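Incident review: delayed structure delivery

Summary: a single-chain prediction request sat in the queue longer than the usual turnaround. Root cause was a stuck worker, restarted by the on-call engineer. No data loss occurred. The affected request and its eventual output are reproduced below so the record is complete for anyone auditing the incident later.

Affected input:
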Amino acid sequence: MQSKLIRIVALTLVVFVSSADLLAEQKRAKKAPPLQSAPREVAAKPKEILRAPSGPSFYIEQISETRNQYSLLLTDSDNRSVAGTFLLSQLSLFQALMVAAKDFGETTESAGTTAKPVTTRFMDKGEPSFVIDVEKTATHSRFYVSMTSLAGKVTVNAGAVKRGSKDQGNPLFFALLSRVNAVIAESK
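Output delivered after worker restart:
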């Protein structure tokens, strides 16, 4: 009687294991293999090539799932870049420094000569992450933006403007100020 019971249990186990194996095999067969393109199709598709930016540039975006943290990347003309994470309050201070530097750059106050320009620095002693220098000659103002983070420091020549001219082009300084203004306005 005991041997019959052992045989029944053993037979049940064999049937169960083989049916589980068969079920697993069916699941594997149901998964469709990834679609493969014919060689002609691959050649016909245009490839999107991403190129790293060259020259001075910047990037500012909110860090996903956070309300008041932003990622800022600043790259100089030699493609050296520094990235940092900043709070909204730090970006507001950066905005205030940029507005003050822009307003100062549009005046003839403290202007030097072409041979000997005068440089004025805008910074906050409590926040060393951002420094803006305005170099002024008799007719032009040139902006330099420096950013310091844990990753290092970079100074970017952010462009020059001719004071009194209506067409200033679009120096990097004005594009950066515009983006900082937009980021701060979006946060409100």
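Verification: The helical segments are 2-30, 39-44, 88-105, 172-187.
Action items: add queue-age alerting; document worker restart procedure.
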